Amino acid sequence: MQIKEAIILAGGVGTRLRTAVPDLPKCLAPVAGRPFLFYVINALRAQGVERFIFSLGYMHEEVERYLHDHFPTLDYDCAIEGEPLGTGGAILLSCTHSQADHILVANGDTLFETYLTDVVHVHEQTDAICTLALKPMENFDRYGVVTVNSAGMVEQFHEKKYYAEGLINGGIYLLNRKRFLSLPWPSTRFSFEKDFLEKQVSTGTIAGAISNGYFIDIGIPEDFERAGRDLLQPPLDLQAIDNTWSLFLDRDGVINEDKPGSYIFTPEEFHFMNGGPQLFSKLAARFGRILIATNQRGVGRGLMTEDTLTTIHNQMKAAITAAGGRIDGIYYATALENNDPLRKPNPGMALLARRDFPDIDPFKCIMIGNNVSDMQFGRNAGMYTIFLTTTNKEIRLPHPDIDLIFPDLAHFVEAL
Description:
Layout: E1 5-9, E2 30-31, E3 34-35, H1 36-45, E4 51-56, H2 60-70, E5 75-80, H3 86-95, E6 102-107, E7 110-112, H4 116-126, E8 130-140, E9 146-148, E10 154-157, E11 163-176, H5 177-182, H6 192-200, E12 206-210, E13 215-217, H7 221-230, E14 246-249, H8 279-286, E15 289-295, H9 297-300, H10 306-322, E16 329-333, H11 348-356, E17 365-369, H12 372-380, E18 384-388, E19 404-406, H13 409-415
Parallel strand pairs: 1-4, 1-6, 4-5, 8-12, 14-15, 14-17, 15-16, 17-18, 18-19
Antiparallel strand pairs: 2-3, 6-11, 7-13, 8-11, 9-10
């Protein structure tokens, strides 16, 4: 089972956070220079989720504006409450916007970097109507505790009080959508936790999958401030790069000379930029992985064939290899639709690379490109970003999507 669709509950008022964020919905609270929703969306995309349904209520216009302005290529829909429906009613409404058999549900004010494959495994093994992602914690009183049996089924939800240790509900749920919709709800307004999870436990259909990934709930000012520290990416230090790092590169205007407004149609049109293939011998000595991620819409438009694109790439790789360098993988997006998950700035090509090369450390990746979409691709995949001014010399720092700027790839290699 592959989970491609998720509901994000982003309609909360955030009363306890009012002192820290008085004029925004809770999911848009600024954390480390970004609205918190940015991290939630990309954490789920990193697990393979491609389509989103945002459950909105309070100040929904602000969330819709943010999504329109900052995620224009994201495949999403909005389910807007006409009146407060509670978490259960919000999920029920959002489920009507989906056709998926099983759908992920996440809170817009909670980041839990769980392994979705583990949740899916438990969900399938137990045939649960709902599987919770559970986080082990120590010395806490803000959350209740969830107990599970050896078969992975939830036995009981315990009230909030001090616990020396225990499993908490991490706010990530995998839901059998059709079974959930078929339940005889007396009202469209109800609590998912109280009126569904706690009442459904006795039927033996609620499961739990334990994950020890990073967890933060920004619902109170103290944890909101902690999230700002935890999620702040340290500055990029080029001298710290070693073979545990991975380098992602755009192609046209980075490796080879660009044809503005057109495409490289034949191998004869491919010409290396300043420094040539010899630059890759130095890059290979510093980076553990070197990968190319390039949009190639010319194939999708029928202006060239995929076979020709492969021939161009083989010629490029041969020249780089002959010069003592290497390319570990080439990923390209040919789709015409901007919301295709592989097309930059969507992070799909980075996710494919991580699947193919499990040794890639997501916190030690750099994306180099000459378009803002390259930089957004890098940010959406959690990377550091470097902008080359080969075709756009107007970009300046500071820029929210860019860490460093160089004139071309040769100058970056020199800086190493």
